[in-house]
Amino acid sequence: MSAENATLLKTPFFAQHVALGAKMVPFAGFEMPVQYPSGITSEHNIVRTGCGLFDVSHMGEFKITGPQAMEFVNYVTSNNVAALASGQVHYSGILYENGTFVDDCLVYFRSNDHVMMVVNASNKDKDFAHISTYAGKFDCTLEDISDKIALLALQGPRAQEILARLTDADLDAIKYYHFTDGTVAGVGPMIISRTGYTGEDGFELYHDVKDAITIWDAIMATGQVQAVGLGCRDSLRLEMGMALYGNDIDDTVTPLEANLGWLVKFKKGDFVGKAALEAQKAAGVPRKLVGFTIADKAFPRHGYPVFVNGQPGGKVCSGTVSPSLGLPIGTCYVPTAHAVVGNHVEIDQRGKRVTATITEMPFWKHGSHK
Amino acid sequence: MSSIPADLRYTNSHEYLKPTADPTVVVVGITDYAQGELGDIVYLELPKPGATFGAHDSFGTIEAVKAVSDLYSPVAGEVLEVNPRLDAEPSLINSDPYGDGWMLKLRVAPADVAALMDAQAYEKHLESGGGGQ
To answer: How far is Cα B130 from Cα B133, in angstroms, rounded to an integer?
Structure first.
């Protein structure tokens, strides 16, 4: 083990991953399983057709409590937290004053005085510092609880029938993007959330790290679930056109450019980034994130140069060969006028130009989420 | 531990050469270790019969889910045959790298082949951290 790895953090499931023969890689400061011996394509297909278990304990969780917890989160995120019912979740953006992304996140609403934000591991400290700068204006307490929380994502069309055997929660009562508190494998209570990053039905279990192995062992003991890694997580989310921070969105793009205008609720009141986004909307959004497919054999990869009408036009944001479709797929930014389904761009694949066609997203339209 | 057949010759960059009945003809592919490191292989670009290469020339590329890699010709030679099944079934390289996942048949100088690592030397190369492409 290299000295570099010695500084990496481990999730509570590290020994389980190693015992299963996972290939561990550095990711966001953690040593994470990118794949198990069955391979990324096989793991991808298991999540589309059966049930896979992801360790995503590296994700960051912030607990916001106090009389103005909801108002605070509503101010530092772009979606409208005031519209959430207790037990509801939504996807949102954490923005800079200039309207670009600090991060994307999930917001879990319990009550006006208790909200949780879930953020990308690689951005966690930056996010916490950023939102803390606004906390003084609100009567609330902000706590980074990431180290106390382990997170498993059980994903796939069979997730419910498998989890139902292990929980006291009524899973039928949890709608997509909602959560409840329940036990799993006799431990908890924990947040059981009908969310995920795959396009399939599934549940995310936010639990105390001390319960982590009990839950993992009980799920794996069903014999119906395969551990799956971050490799297939990326191809699953890309097939759904779901953005990945660092690829599709970052601190140089706004939600309006990233096709995430639905995350921006101008009418909800003031929030960080609002003025800049109003100005951009009024002036016209200069570029848009689009999805593309390639008819030839190709493998578009993050960073490959893109050409629009023969002119350099940015880089491939995300790209892969879709395991579900058997087609090269990807995303890139193009000038707004060019962002029309059916238009073409060229991608420089290691010195060879290949033609890509702008396509509607999601690429995969048969997800089981409901 | 990955499989390292005793009767093959190996390169630092994880290609193998397999002898045939004709000492001037070898079968070329990538090792079990290499396919394991690459992960699921999605497609390949391989040369056509008749192409010639110097030692260490790039003869193609291999696109895996995680990364793209160049393939290097271990020795100088001429391509006699390309595995026709790989176009439709590149995963043969993952499932059977030394058998159905072979890539090329090359006409070579036997002395060049003899100069490459044997199985024992390749195993030492892997143990000493010779991983990576």
So the answer is: 9
